[in-house]
Write a structure and sequence with these properties.
single chain; mainly alpha; Arc Repressor Mutant, subunit A; Four Helix Bundle (Hemerythrin (Met), subunit A); 10 helices; 3 strands; 67% helix; binds zinc ion
């Protein structure tokens, strides 16, 4: 069952496109032709335009005057800033989450890790990346800080673009070891350890980026969106 079917059409299309970006099917810099997207999803151009506006708000799409919409292409500076912002927010969030986590939360986090493993084992690196992002968003949710959770969600979305552009160890992604260690610290309600682990994990992610690389070329839109 598709849980996003009940949303307005434009939100549904925005979610589909965001997932395609997360899963690396849509490369940074790809032109999102309105007619073509409308055709692929069987919706009107108006719906596509609203979806692209929303994604531009989230920093996933860049709208260029007279040229249309493109999957955003974060610069090296953007990449550093996004990870600096994450390093400011997420360690404290992990501490708060560890202090208030419930058994149901721990079970949900464990499920995330298992799904991530299954995706990796199936060779679905893009999906694994998407799921590892959800793990971080879930921690912010457990910390019960809505404003920070919304920021973290946006930063994760942009991180996935950044990873698509600058990642140099494709197989490691968010190392599941790091997520396991975080889960253990949370299960022990050890806020200090959770904070330290998250700080180390984000630093490790940042040092896994090759911030000298030039972006890879975009593939065709139809190929990226077709199922
Ligand atoms: Zn992670």
């Amino acid at each position: 069952m598709d849980p996003i079917l009940k949303e307005p059409a434009s939100d549904h299309i925005a979610s589909r496109l965001a997932l395609a970006v997360h899963e690396h099917r849509l490369a940074p810099g790809t032109k999102l032709n309105e007619d073509e997207v409308a055709d692929v999803y069987g919706v009107s151009r108006t719906v596509v335009r609203a979806a692209l506006q929303r994604l531009s708000h989230d920093g996933l799409v860049e709208l260029r005057r007279n040229r249309g919409a493109f999957v955003a292409q974060p610069s090296i500076r953007d990449a550093r800033e996004v990870f600096e912002a994450r390093a400011l927010l997420e360690p404290r969030t992990a501490r708060s989450a560890a202090e208030r986590v419930t058994a149901a939360d721990l079970a949900a986090l464990n499920r995330h890790i298992e799904e991530e493993h299954a995706a990796l084992a199936a060779g679905e690196g893009g999906r694994a990346l998407y799921l590892s992002g959800l793990f971080h968003i879930e921690i912010a949710r457990i910390a019960d800080q809505e404003t920070i959770a919304a920021f973290v969600g946006q930063l994760i979305a942009r991180s996935s673009l950044i990873i698509a552009l600058y990642w140099q160890r494709r197989t490691a992604l968010c190392e599941s070891n790091a997520h396991h260690a975080l889960l253990d610290a949370m299960a022990a309600r050890d806020g200090e350890r959770a904070e330290d682990l998250m700080r180390g994990h984000l630093l490790d992610l940042l040092t896994s980026l090759d911030l000298r690389n030039t972006p890879a070329p975009a593939r065709s839109l139809r190929e990226a969106l077709g199922s």
